[in-house]
Fold this protein.
Amino acid sequence: MNATTGRPGKPVHLAVYDTLADWETGHATAQLARIGHEIRTVGPATAPVRSIGGLRIQPDLALADLRPEDSALLILPGADLWDTGDSLAPFARTARAFLDAGVPVAAICGATAGLAREGLLDGRDHTSAVSFYLAATGYAGGGRYVEADAVTDGALVTAGPTEPVAFAREILRLLGVYEGEVLDAWYRLFHDSDAAAYAVLEKAGAL
């Protein structure tokens, strides 16, 4: 727990559903788990789901049983299902409840489109894969789109599918896990393979 300003308390909840993109949340959940956060998976129900990479995941709890006051953060990964119907809309509605309660939400890839359809990006700075991907949802937040690897606005983090490390960086910053040169070094190590960053993290006890 050296080099952390935040202290694990409530669990971090990771949404899981069929076709979820395996690669998008691993950096965030692994680092959070390493510093002591409990990671709990939340499915549409408690029946197993299968990721786009073929991994079978047994959710810890059903979405209907998730309450913002019991969580430190809700992470919404991308999935093909975000773009092929409304089956994941309940997760976007839960994100609204979290944000209304002041509990952070982090959405990446297709999950950003789900939040756009829910109206959650209309008044917040955000990013995604590309601006026209979100524009196709018909949302009213195009003027708040930011060309960046990942964006944090208040309690909301957004990122595109090719930026899992930047997505994790913003989550670590938002939860107060790392800050300053330690956060920068963590990003440089995992995004840029910068060997010099390892020494910074080792000195800070962040490995």
User: Anything to note?
Assistant: The CA atoms of residues 150 and 167 lie 6 Å apart. Strands lie at 12-15, 39-43, 49-50, 56-57, 61-62, 73-76, 105-108, 150-153, 156-159.
